[in-house]
Design goal:
The protein is α/β, with parallel strands linked by helices. Helices cover 25% and strands 15% of the residues. Bound molecules: alpha-D-glucopyranose.
Length: 526
Amino acid sequence: MEPLKWWQTGVVYQIYPRSFQDTDGDGVGDLEGIIRRLDYLVWLGVDALWLSPIYPSPMADFGYDISDFTGIDPLFGALDSFDHLIAAAHARGLRVILDFVPNHTSDRHPWFLESRSGRHNPKRDWYLWRDPGPGGGPPNNWRSRFGGNAWTYDRVSGQYYCHSFLPEQPDLNWRNREVRGAMYRVLRFWLDRGVDGFRVDVISSLIKDDHFRDNPINPGWQPGQRDVHRLIQLYSADRPEVHDIITEMRALLETYPGDRVLIGEIYLPIERLVAYYGADLKGVHLPFNFQLIGVDWDPIGIARIIREYESALPEGGWPNWVLGNHDQPRIATRVGPAQARVAAMLLLTLRGTPTLYYGDELGMEDVPIPPERIRDPWALREPGFGRDGARTPMPWDPSPNGGFTTGQPWLPLAADHAVRCVKRLASEPRSTLSLYRQLLALRRAHPALVHGRYVPLEVKGRVLAYMRQSEGERAVVALNFGPEPVAMEGAPFANGRVLLSTELNREPKSASPLILGGNEGVILIT
Ligand code: GLC
């Protein structure tokens, strides 16, 4: 068997750069701040950091609207500070993954300014321009993911352009070979600078239907649900041709030494998700698996998605799991503080690469954002759907701004930040931070947790249990999703030794039967 690659054995930590560490007092995090916190990440025990976008941007969507793909926004630093970050991370054995945003540019990107300047401009075809529909309105019925129409009219040329997100984020035309060439040069630019891979934004939406057919109405849509879900995204996303592009991106990465990784942001049901491993595994290495985000927090349902996912994986396809990111409510808010610890044990003991979202290791919850402090453009367009609450500053110490900034933080810190901060939790032996750190250390110490097969055990009451089995070692994981204690009788629970409990100070370490406390998870070695 081939030895596993770093992105198979390692753990990815997502940093939202605006909110991690500010060093110049403008209230927004920067690259220098990330450099200063690298030792924290080493101490925590992660292997790679993924940075949400740091490129020049008008910040209509906080960096996901890029006006220069090969620069650094002055808010975050400069190319020098980026090079310094790469060197400092690599010196500590940490990999660096960048966010690559190929679906759209900013409307201020020079390419779009040119494209917009006239119907005959050579860059016209770099974006998706269409004539008005028969009644003079938009060319078809597509909706923006942030609510409203996916088409904006350009008075000067009398045509509409397509934007899957904000009007400030026009979609590129990936059927155009020049666009592909230009975007592949972007990938090379960063690979040449030493980045270890990319998380590719909305990768499954790069190609749209060539006839721009109307999307079908979604009969299940109900008022109160997201506007975009009024329609089924049949023609605007997950088109078969997208796989050719991904194969090209992957082939480009393969020309570089050092196992550079390609990760795709893909919100699709399992059977369509796994297609993104590509024919002969020549697609993305890791199609992000978001199944734990949408699922009801229930052991039977979770056992089912693990089983379905494990059996849908193509031969040789490496699994991965995610609990949260900058677009989702935080795990501790979704399942509550006690279950957030169980979730941590689940994430870090399932088979596959885990991705952690900054602050989740502190048990951070979504911060209520007063209306006047809302920044997320989505929340402003579709009230109730904001992401600001999950993007608030990382609390480092008990000082007034949590050690995040000496200025005014761009989003408020959590009300409990003086107690829920790295400095405090690092010295509390039972804190969520200590739990994460011990789980990460266990993965390094016990190969079964990384290499082992996933062997499901029967769900008993509210307890999800499984084994990770490798040659010579067998780890048993039992996670109590309920508040009541449960007695786990017989093999493989009896006579095992508890390596780690979410309670951290569990005694006794072994017993028959094993009594699992309410909301307790344990890892046993048998
Ligand atoms: C992805 C990003 C999200 C962004 C959107 C548009 O879903 O994760 O934050 O708003 O793409 O780029």
